[in-house]
């Protein structure tokens, strides 16, 4: 067995420099080394492409968010339309409801079968409207709220606190959370305060 000095016995012509050695960072595809100006130009191009990519990704994210907001807004508007589509029809029925209430305010001595029939029809109409979401606005004894009540008269009195509703002249109604008609009320004005 022959002694070697630690080097392998490989014929130098068998070595393929392009496959054996890692490429230099500055080498192009042919294995030649590029000039520093070309490298900096390519890195500038790469930086420009990265900035353009980031801009486009940001724009895409914004457009997606804008589209999602528009979709949600449209869905909310459609739901609002469905929720309050009956508002106009119910508004036209409110005077009829008022007439029933006035008809039922006759004295108990004058009650008859006609009164019982009117009371039954009034209850049926009221129940149907409650199922649709109509709610009366509480008024008598409540503090005056300009968002829910319309003050017709201010009454000087010391029997009630200032701005308390003394009498309801016409009942107000809400359809779900939307005001259909404010209550017409008389409001106390307490001069002691």
Description:
It is a single chain. The chain is α+β, with helices and mostly antiparallel strands and 193 residues long. The chain folds into 2 domains: 21-85, no CATH class; 87-189, Nucleotide Exchange Factor Grpe, Chain A, domain 2 (Roll). 46% of the residues lie in helices and 16% in strands. It is built from 4 helices and 6 strands; from the N terminus they run ααααββββββ. The chain has helices at residues 17-20, 36-84, 87-103, 113-131; strands spanning 134-136, 149-156, 165-170, 173-175, 178-181, 183-189. The strands form 2 sheets. Strands 1-4-5 form a 3-stranded antiparallel β-sheet. A 3-stranded mixed β-sheet has the order 2-6-3, with no helix packed on it. α3 (87-103) packs antiparallel against α4 (113-131). It is elongated.
Please estimate the helix content: 40-55%
Biggest β-sheet strands, sense, barrel:
3 strands, antiparallel
**Contiguous runs where pLDDT drops below 50 for at least 5 residues:** none
Number of strands: 6
- Element pattern in H and E: HHHHEEEEEE
Instruction: List the domain count as a whole number.
Output: 2
Q: Can you tell me the CATH architecture of the largest domain? A: Roll
What is the terminal separation in angstroms? 123 Å
- Arithmetic mean of pLDDT: 82
Say what the CATH topology of the largest domain is. Answer: Nucleotide Exchange Factor Grpe, Chain A, domain 2
| Approximate strand percentage | 15-25%
The strands making up the biggest β-sheet line up spatially as 1-4-5
Q: Supply the helix-strand structural class.
A: alpha+beta
Gyration radius, rounded: 43 Å
| Tally of separate helices | 4
